[in-house]
Amino acid sequence: MPTTAFIRPDGENRDEIASLLHQVVDLLVDAMAQAAARSPLPESLVSKTWSQLPQGSVDEDRLLEELRSQLLHSMNAAHPGYIGHMDSIPTTMSVIGDLLVAALNNNMLSVEMSPLFSRLETTVLQQITQLFGLGPQANGVLVSGGSLANLQALLVARNIAFNALDHGIPQGQQPVFFVSEVAHTSFKKAAMVMGLGTKAAIPVATNHNSQINLDDLKTQLTTAKNQGQTPFAIVATAGTTVTGSIDPIAEMANIAKAHQLWFHVDAAYGGAVMFSNHHRHQLAGIEQADSVTFNPQKWLYVAKTCAMVMFRQFDLLQHQFRVLAPYMHDHDDWPNLGELTVQGTRHPDILKLWLSLQHIAKNGYSAIIDHNYALTQTFTTAVKARSFLTLASAPQMNLVCFRAEPAGLPTEEWDSWNQGLQQWLLEQGNTFLSLPIYRGQRWLKAVLLNPFTTAEHIHTLFAHIDCYYASHRSS
Questions:
Q1: Residues 6 or more apart from 43 whose CB is under 8 A from it?
Q2: Fold designation for 362-472
Q3: What is the pLDDT confidence band of residue 42, given thresholds at 50, 70 and 90?
Q4: How far apart are CA 329 and CA 466, in angstroms?
Q5: Residue 475 pLDDT more than 80?
Q6: Is the full-model pTM beyond 0.90?
């Protein structure tokens, strides 16, 4: 067994461990500091040799060389031209936080197994719920991604509506909930996992700006009841995946209240807007939510994974979700969070979140988000200035969904033309835009998330678009 297989608790191999970690840190910093010199979407590394399980230990120098190759062939979200998805460059402090908690290897199942981090999670998330205006009884839990956050919110809503914690849903009941037709796919997954079937997530039509149509929501509610279904929740999205659109949160909250339904807001992406004094008004009404999903791993730049689900009445988890772990000591003043989440064992994501919030702080995040909005305006203006480009919707966040519709080119060829433009921008402009299917067509999506993307990058991007248009509009 290698002498560096573990960090010996007696310190006997301290120098060897320190030397190895120094090499790893140098490798990491070199790779990240040179991110702008590499492609935002490099070719995949395909090798069968390094992926094989060896019979004997592999030399550390060889492992470091393999790691270097893997770093250089991985998706490069740190590149200022990586603007295709909601993947962000990580904060320095979240990288440090992940390193430290990996070494400690605490389990967030209980206070006994993570005495400091369990208390820190409860304390920090309580403050974040107040930033969202959820009230003095609010708090939340960290989970591994927005899909689990949305699932847990709906589980609590379902248990309350049908008194289902102990005995499940009463026979003959058909629970349903309502989401935007462009809501995240996690809601269909949640309906499936809950045993309701994917069709229990009833899609509601959207308007030209990809926001829920309130009249259709009311119609769908009436239809569901007339068909013998039992509605139990309404979901609003703050930051849709393709266009970054925000549903009419306040109006939907009123509808949910009038029908005595649970109101959940999926603000996995858009929740970060609450950190901006200039733009937080766009989420007006979120303070009325019964539960909110928010992913700091997106617009707060915390390394994956870092997501949370917040509840206006946190004690509902105790009464409508908690499953006791009798093998764990009970702390009256602090909850065992593993009893209140879908997951038992959890990674201590709270340290990297807390470190990032301490280091960048509210003012720093506000400045970054405001910068992203300014870039969005620059980008949107450039799209509108070109007659061959069209917007999918009016941007409400830092996402711009657009496509080319070149005159003189048959409409059935527009999708392939836009796909060619995507490749051109990656190869000629070192810029990656994603190409989602939206409204049955291919669109280009820009997510102006990277704090090092500048207006100059945007101007250069559109110069490349103009070049492609000039040489391909009739081909």
A1: 73
A2: Aspartate Aminotransferase, domain 1 (3.90.1150)
A3: confident
A4: 65
A5: no
A6: yes
